[in-house]
């Protein structure tokens, strides 16, 4: 057998959240976490696992749970054991493509507080109103509407969306230029494929930014060209120098820094697009949620021939619906529709009809108002808890969306040690660094999603975070005294 030495203890931190799951669920959570780590390639084939006694000690769980997990995963073929040779990761397991799991923001099971960014509160999904819309659609939908749909989307939905996007976001939205698609993800993929087919090898993406675009373009064809941001938006000089003619942006609420593009930068971006006969892709993923004033209108409204606008119901209703929209300049419509046709022949007709009815009857506006109230309260709870428990922390970005940046002063660090400590305490946070950004000096910028947590859970999570930071500080003071 060839096996690599034990991975650094950080690798076992993958199991820490599972180890703090409630006692009844702990054994199963440990098995799932270990299985996931092997499948995703975070534990490479050949990696030797610690003895059950050592791992149980490190994680603070009973040795029986670890032995059971090793036995179960050995039986399933994920792990191998040899007499006297210990336990190691089997060679036959094929790791999933790296990064794929990171695309969808979803809270992890078994963690005491998970500040994952980008997840709405799924318990706010309007089940009764949605069920009523479904019943209404089933009662009234003509038989022929159950045939293959128009690949652009049901005309009824495109008309409803055109009205909604014009009214709420200032989008110039002719139903003929709207393509209903499976979320922003498919919209950006379609654009990537079409622009690549037109000879564009590279497409600009914001850095820091959402990791998903790089993954999407890796399958769609073009290279993702990372372009730096400052506190007004994309920096123009690197964009001009990059040679790209299309760039994906989040101008209403940049992900993840939380800034809104300044008026000047919005104008410069459009000037650039006109100069190079290029395209700004506007990802308006959470543009409906603004808590201190009315949301700034979409960039697309200023120049519909140079901006492709996309959004979805993933933040307002539920990401599992996989419903979104793309509004494209005239010259791109036909090619995008052709790609959409060959990709999946259009989105499911019933779901589209339900969303159309939901929008037409004002239910969508009601849902947005309900989420807006809840998320504003949660953002306020987050800011108050940070002020109370982690004094000196700066909350930055506009009061909008589903996440905020909290920059902890350097005294709560160093960053690595704090992140390790938080993982060990079952508090899941992502540093800004995870998205390609960082702060000046030793300050610690964290991207904190709050929309999926109640105010009480937010306060409790920040209290846990603060306690971990204090314990770290305490340990440091002790070790320097010794
Ligand atoms: C920046 C950004 N854009 C778009 C989305 C949503 O993608 P989709 O509409 O495909 O669910 C997300 C989801 O987290 C996101 O963070």
Structure in words:
The protein is an alpha/beta fold. It has 3 domains: 9-96, Orthogonal Bundle (Arc Repressor Mutant, subunit A), CATH 1.10.10; 113-119 and 366-481, Aspartate Aminotransferase, domain 1; 126-361, 3-Layer(aba) Sandwich (Aspartate Aminotransferase, domain 2), CATH 3.40.640. Helix content is 43%, strand content 15%. It is built from 15 helices and 17 strands. It has helices spanning 16-19, 23-39, 52-59, 63-76, 127-140, 155-169, 183-197, 212-220, 236-242, 263-275, 330-344, 349-360, 363-389, 415-424, 455-481; strands at residues 48-49, 79-82, 86-89, 113-114, 178-181, 202-207, 223-230, 233-234, 246-249, 279-283, 307-312, 324-327, 394-396, 403-408, 427-428, 430-431, 444-449. The strands form 4 sheets. Strands 5-12-11-10-9-6-7-8 form an 8-stranded mixed β-sheet, with helices on both faces. It has a 4-stranded antiparallel β-sheet with strand order 13-14-17-16, with helices on one face. Strands 1-3-2 form a 3-stranded antiparallel β-sheet. α8 links the parallel β6 (202-207) and β7 (223-230). α3 packs across α4 (63-76) and α7 packs across α8 (212-220). The chain is globular and about 65 Å long. Mean pLDDT is 90; it is low at 1-8 and 96-102. The site of pyridoxal-5'-phosphate has 14 residues, from α7. Residues 105, 118, 183-185, 210, 250, 255, 283, 285, 312, 314, 319, 324 line the site of pyridoxal-5'-phosphate.
